[in-house]
């Protein structure tokens, strides 16, 4: 499946930039671009919080990690991080699944601004930003709606790039160039990013190129469970049909950087109650075209809109930090063609919020409040009357934390969050080929509400470090999609499709994420560590189990690190999932993956890294339960990936 071109533009008061092909940019929300895992997290709080002092679950991929990461879509790249899986809708269109939630409940951002694409509408639509364009990716697991609105009720993935530079590059220029090749799909890819400064001006150029063939699979594409249900024989094709990719993306950006800020994207005050004001604005025109077998355009999805936000960041006083902000967006979504299952919809949203934190050293408190107003106007498919729904939502959170001993952080938080139904949940009425169903929305759906209690523990002292997050969420009006028992005959495909209806019910989600590392041997810069991670989520509605909930996973790793050489051996086990929502969702078998990786920095400056990785060494048949395609598209088989990265 191909990654489809997207055009996107950014408008700022003093700086304009355009992206001629690929994804675009938005103004960054912080003047800092950290490169260490345990540093300031800018996603979730405009004033930033240290990762080991956060009461919410966070994860970071820094620039060094991304420079040698697999050339993959966002969902596939993040799959396997604690609490994160992938929709795995082929290599070109995979979106993150966080704690069993996806689609309109997980918000994907670029520098704190929504992408205004159609990836949340359907799992076969690509995210309009490629991870290779980023120098940092931050993940929040769990509700993050106070700063980002109801679409972040399940979590946030924030792709941070340097397309709008926030500081002058050291020495006048910096960047990264990387190239890699993979065996499982005959893949070749490369990317480059360069930021250069002259006087008070800084400019950025980045480019990504990736091309792969259909990837090899260790078993027939059809699962044995599906073959048994349909009464057919499995055919071993050796590769996954229609899984090739061809991606090109590049962009440019620039900013004026002064002593007190940049481009009007940030202005820092000398005194007064506020330390800075930060603003960002993004405009996007997105087109996703689905081609028929003969190569003719079939259904076209368009999204055109803008989003902006502004934050007043309070000056830190005796451990008290805070911010007040406003966020607004307006966009128009339309689908044209035989498979247009959602009508044209105009969406407008305005939100105001405040987040506050008091840190007294050995204890502290957090809290926040947000109000959202969201309006959706759409014309039902086949109808001539306009439907107008308005939602007024409130979200709030409170937390307390302690540092009872050196290296130990304990936190307890409670959050109440509200989400307006999406355009699909309200107005869908048609065959959705990607999900193999006739989907029917309900224009009378109410606000989805959830209350979440979460406990957090960070420990980092001596040879051991670890993180634990335990959570329980209670939903009032959880929007679920359930089969009605009816079937619809679709002439275009000459097939019958089960009819699904969006409805509301009560639900509860609970689970945990844990990870830890113990240094069993240290000598100078050389360390041998045992690392482990596990996650689990249980989801139940009044109708029964929620759909496509990932099973538990357990990962063990032996890692060696040093100045010149790194290596690791990893065993990852994903459990069986037999708690399914209905007769159309088949169980998934468990599987175990063996992965090896190594990196060498041959030069004293450590600017050049040669890396190699072997994944799924045993050529295991593996299927991602969160995927709509799991029973016709297994994960790739044995793969060797090699590459080189140069950071300057």
Largest sheet: 22 strands, antiparallel, barrel
Query: What percent strand?
Result: over 45%
Give start-end ranges of low-pLDDT stretches. Answer: 1-37
**What integer is the average pLDDT?**
89
- The general outline is globular
Individual helix count: 5
Q: Radius of gyration, rounded? A: 24 Å
Task: State the end-to-end distance.
Answer: 34 Å
Helix content: under 10%
Structural class: mainly beta
Record field, number of beta strands: 36
How would you summarize what this structure contains?
By secondary structure, this protein is mostly beta strands.
Give structural notes.
- The protein is mainly beta.
- Helix content is 4%, strand content 54%.
- It is built from 5 helices and 36 strands.
- It has a 22-stranded antiparallel beta barrel. It has a 5-stranded mixed β-sheet with strand order 5-10-11-8-9. Strands 3-4 form a two-stranded antiparallel ribbon.
- A hairpin with a 4-residue loop joins β1 and β2 (16-19).
- The radius of gyration is 24 Å and the shape is globular.
- The model is unreliable at 1-37 (pLDDT under 50).
């Amino acid at each position: 499946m191909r990654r489809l071109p997207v055009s996107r533009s950014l408008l700022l008061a003093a700086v304009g930039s355009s992206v001629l092909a690929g994804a675009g940019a938005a103004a960054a929300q912080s003047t800092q671009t950290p490169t260490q895992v345990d540093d300031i997290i800018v996603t979730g709080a405009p004033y930033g919080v240290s990762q080991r002092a956060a009461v919410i679950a966070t994860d970071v991929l820094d620039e060094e990690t991304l420079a040698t990461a697999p050339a993959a879509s966002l969902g596939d790249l993040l799959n396997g991080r604690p609490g994160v899986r992938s929709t795995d809708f082929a290599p070109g269109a995979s979106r993150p699944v966080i704690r069993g939630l996806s689609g309109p409940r997980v918000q994907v951002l670029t520098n704190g601004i929504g992408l205004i694409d159609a990836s949340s509408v359907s799992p076969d639509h690509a995210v309009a930003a490629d991870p290779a364009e980023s120098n940092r990716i931050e993940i929040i697991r769990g509700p993050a709606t106070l700063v980002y609105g109801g679409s972040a009720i399940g979590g946030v993935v924030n792709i941070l790039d340097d397309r709008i530079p926030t500081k002058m590059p050291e020495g006048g220029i910096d960047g990264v160039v990387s190239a890699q090749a993979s065996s499982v799909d005959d893949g070749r890819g490369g990317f480059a990013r360069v930021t250069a400064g002259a006087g008070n001006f800084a400019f950025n150029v980045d480019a990504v190129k990736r091309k792969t063939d259909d990837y090899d699979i260790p078993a027939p594409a059809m699962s044995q469970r599906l073959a048994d249900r349909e009464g057919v024989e499995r055919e071993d094709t050796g590769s996954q049909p229609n899984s090739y990719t061809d991606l090109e993306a590049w962009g440019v950006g620039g900013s004026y950087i002064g002593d007190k800020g940049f481009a009007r994207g940030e202005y820092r005050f000398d005194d007064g109650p506020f330390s800075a004001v930060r603003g960002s604005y993004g405009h996007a025109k997105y087109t996703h075209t689905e081609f028929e077998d003969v190569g003719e355009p079939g259904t076209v999805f368009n999204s055109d809109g803008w989003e902006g936000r502004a934050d007043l960041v309070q000056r830190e006083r005796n451990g008290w930090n805070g911010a007040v902000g406003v966020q607004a967006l307006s966009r128009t979504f339309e689908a044209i063609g035989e498979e247009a299952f959602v009508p044209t919809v105009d969406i407008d949203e305005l939100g105001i919020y405040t987040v506050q934190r008091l840190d007294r050293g050995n204890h502290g408190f957090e809290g926040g409040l947000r109000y959202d107003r969201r309006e959706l106007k759409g014309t039902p498919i086949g109808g001539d009357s306009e439907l107008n729904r308005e939602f007024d939502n409130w979200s709030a959170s409170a937390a307390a934390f302690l540092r009872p001993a050196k290296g130990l952080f304990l936190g307890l938080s409670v959050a109440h969050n509200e989400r307006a139904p999406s355009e699909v949940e309200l107005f869908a009425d048609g065959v959705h080929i990607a999900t193999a169903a006739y989907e029917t929305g309900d224009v009378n759906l109410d606000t989805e509400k959830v209350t979440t209690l979460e406990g957090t523990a960070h420990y980092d002292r001596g040879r051991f470090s670890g993180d634990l997050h335990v959570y329980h969420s209670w939903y009032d009006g959880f929007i679920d999609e359930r089969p009605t028992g009816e079937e619809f005959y679709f002439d275009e495909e000459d097939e019958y499709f089960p009819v699904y209806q969006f409805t509301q019910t009560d639900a509860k989600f609970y689970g945990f994420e844990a990870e830890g590392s113990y240094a069993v041997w240290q000598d100078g810069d050389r360390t041998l560590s045992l690392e482990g991670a596990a996650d689990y989520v249980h989801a139940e509605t009044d109708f029964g189990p929620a759909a496509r909930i990932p099973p538990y996973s357990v990962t063990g790793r032996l890692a060696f690190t040093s100045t010149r050489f790194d290596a690791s051996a990893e065993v990852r086990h994903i459990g069986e999932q037999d708690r399914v929502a209905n007769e159309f969702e088949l169980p998934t078998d468990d599987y175990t993956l063996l992965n090896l990786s190594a990196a060498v920095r041959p030069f004293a400056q450590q600017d050049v890294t040669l890396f190699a990785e072997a994944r799924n060494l045993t050529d295991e048949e593996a299927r991602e339960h969160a995927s709509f395609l799991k029973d016709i598209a297994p994960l790739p088989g044995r793969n060797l990936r090699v590459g080189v990265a140069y950071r300057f």
